[in-house]
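Summary for the steering committee. One of the milestones for this cycle was to obtain a three-dimensional model of the protein with heme C bound, which we needed before selecting residues for the alanine scan. The sequence and ligand used are listed below.
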Amino acid sequence: MVSSRCCAGLWVLAMLLACSAGCQRAEPVTWDSSEQVQKLPEELGKIVRDAVVRQSGTALEPRLAGAATPRDEAGRRRLQQHTALGQAVYNKRCVQCHGVSGDGAGAVAASLYPRPRDYTKGIFKFTSMPYGSKPRRDDLLQTLVRGISGTSMPSFRLLPRKELEAVVDYVILLSRRGELELQLASEAEASEELETETIDDYVTTVAERWKEGSGLPTQPLTPQPELTEERIARGREAFLTRGCSKCHGEDGRGHTKDNIGRDAWGFATRAADLTSGMLRGGQEPLDVYRRIMNGINGTPMPGFRSALESEPDTIWDLVSYVLSVSEQRRLETVAGKTTIPAGLIKPYVEPEPVADGGSGDSAE
Ligand code: HEC
Ligand code: HEC
């Protein structure tokens, strides 16, 4: 324990020194294989590692698994520059937390709660898409711009747009690499062999799944109503009768004795304290609407789409209630108030659409 802490400390120090000598250059140059691959018999492990290198390249020459190479030289060069920029931004600003290969095990990760996302499972929490879907590229961009409040994930809104676009595509590249590696390793472990056709199938499946991210985001079934006191009261009723309070507690604080669980990454997780004033998935009504409809990927928070689809009004009631408890503590501590003025909750504004994709898939 002591020595691993000490090592982490040295690492941070080493990285800081490297950074002061010019962070762009001090790139870590290898992607380690996952533990699952390391556990495979020698020969199978090699087949998996080779397949992953063929598809995703190496840390020195990264590639998006399953994507076509641009046909003309200019396109290839643009893509290469875009990827190199993404990697440089990532290795400067994200690697300490998310790790060189995106496995969430950066030098400072162990001391953080929640843990930085391990992208290699291909699961993302705060998206606008139905439960189980891949995120839209815009969802990831929005996370970068907003940060995740109440966690150590910072906002990168001051970065130039070009860098944001590039680093998002690099995150997708790492995620697709990790996912492919994971699937191939599981297959190799289960069937004790790995045929070329099987590998090709997995490459296609992973690439296809990411196309979901170009689908349409979840939109409210009915327009956003005015958030009134009555609505908040109805929302509280629904919160208590529809099962929310079982996990989040009657007061929304999540202080229930059974509030324990594990997430898809194997870490302990708890139903959110909705009163903390820091909703991780965003404070806008539409954000909360989507959390309730879609659930939160990789966590015990279920989607309520099928339960509430036929009562669109109840969804807005719940949104109103969640937003009211979320604001309440802040208001209480500031002004001793117990309710929120409806005007405090602003109407949702769609984020600016992302110009000029630049994703490796579209191969320009
Ligand atoms: C100080 C640590 C830290 C740094 C630096 C950091 N992150 Fe994060 N990041 C986190 C944590 C913690 C989470 C998980 C929050 C949660 O689970 O609610 C996260 C989550 C994410 C997610 C997942 C969101 C989702 O919907 O699941 C993405 C994408 C992401 N970070 C990208 C980045 C990128 C890109 C950078 C660099 C430009 C970066 N992060 C830098 C800590 C960090
Ligand atoms: C089985 C337990 C469970 C039930 C039932 C449940 N939740 Fe959750 N909820 C969670 C967990 C766990 C999280 C935190 C996920 C994470 O970020 O790791 C969460 C997160 C949330 C969030 C996001 C908070 C944020 O920080 O952005 C909202 C909003 C929410 N729940 C509302 C509801 C509502 C409304 C209901 C009932 C309709 C409900 N939940 C039912 C477990 C549950």
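Key point for the committee: Residues 275 and 329 are 6 Å apart (CA to CA).
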